[in-house]
């Protein structure tokens, strides 16, 4: 398939400037490739972490429900509701931006959480601790899912840019550069032939 060339003025000055531009675009293309590869690695790592956390969450939910049923059966609904009503429900989170290859992804930090240590019976305290662990996992899962969304979107944009440079812009620029080179070579050859012709005419007149 033939590659299109750009409409240009084929002068030597333009050729030298255009050659620098091609080099600049190729350097940018290499940087975008590096960014794409790094984002791909980050995305795979996030997805792997997400799968592990989901499995951990499923196990934790199952464990919490088993223990909660035991506590519920032992203490009864009214006692459980009393503990729930008396428990503070403050949880402070801070969502901080973290830069990865020039894009900002969320990092969730637990600033403060409810301190309920030693406020319940040992069995109920175990369930409460399990719930707190489960909450941390859910927060981490939310953070990872947000990171995956952000990185996926940027990876898609980067891929489009890499493909456009690789398949359209760079081939067109290189074809244009070759076109200018060929024209300049033709001009040089014609100039050389004219000089040679003039020299031969001068030489023949001298000899005559």
Give a verbal description of the structure.
- The chain has 208 residues and is mainly alpha-helical.
- The chain has a domain at 24-167: Helix Hairpins (Orthogonal Bundle).
- It is 77% helix and 10% strand.
- The chain contains three helices and two strands, in the order H-H-E-E-H.
- The chain has helices at residues 12-75, 77-86, 122-207, and strands at residues 91-100, 103-113.
- It has a two-stranded antiparallel sheet.
- A hairpin with a 2-residue loop joins strand 1 (91-100) and strand 2.
- Helix 1 packs across helix 2 and helix 1 (12-75) runs antiparallel to helix 3 (122-207).
- The longest helix is centred in the C-terminal third of the chain and has 86 residues, at 122-207.
- The chain is rod-shaped and about 125 Å long.
- The mean pLDDT is 83.
Write the layout of secondary structure elements.
Blueprint: H1 12-75, H2 77-86, E1 91-100, E2 103-113, H3 122-207
Antiparallel strand pairs: 1-2
Number of helices: 3
Kindly state the number of beta strands: 2
Overall 3D form: rod-shaped
Q: How would you classify the quaternary structure? A: single chain
Sheet of most strands: 2 strands, antiparallel
Residue fraction in strands = 5-15%
Mean pLDDT: 83
The end-to-end span amounts to: 56 Å
Reading off the top of the CATH hierarchy, the class of the domain at 24-167 is best stated as Mainly Alpha
Fraction of residues in helix: over 70%
**Unreliable spans:** none
Second-tier CATH architecture of the domain at 24-167? Orthogonal Bundle
Q: Which fold does the CATH topology of the domain at 24-167 refer to?
A: Helix Hairpins
- The chain-level structural class is mainly alpha
Succession of helices and strands? HHEEH
Rg (C-alpha, Å): 35 Å
Strand order of the largest sheet: 1-2
């Amino acid at each position: 398939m033939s590659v299109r060339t750009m409409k240009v003025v084929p002068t030597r000055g333009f050729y030298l400037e255009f050659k620098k531009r091609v080099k600049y675009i190729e350097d940018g293309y290499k940087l975008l490739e590096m960014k794409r590869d790094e984002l791909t690695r980050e995305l795979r790592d996030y997805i792997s972490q997400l799968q592990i956390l989901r499995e951990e969450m499923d196990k934790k939910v199952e464990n919490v429900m088993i223990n909660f049923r035991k506590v519920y059966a032992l203490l009864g609904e009214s006692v459980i509701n009393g503990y729930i009503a008396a428990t503070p429900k403050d949880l402070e989170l801070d969502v901080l931006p973290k830069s990865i290859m020039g894009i900002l992804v969320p990092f969730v930090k637990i600033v403060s959480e409810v301190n309920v240590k030693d406020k319940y019976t040992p069995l109920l305290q175990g369930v409460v601790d399990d719930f707190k662990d489960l909450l941390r996992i859910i927060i981490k899962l939310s953070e990872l899912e947000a990171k995956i969304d952000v990185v996926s979107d940027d990876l898609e944009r980067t891929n489009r840019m890499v493909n456009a440079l690789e398949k359209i812009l760079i081939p067109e620029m290189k074809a244009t550069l070759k076109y200018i080179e060929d024209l300049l070579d033709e001009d040089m050859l014609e100039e050389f032939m004219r000089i040679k012709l003039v020299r031969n005419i001068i030489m023949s007149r001298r000899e005559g």
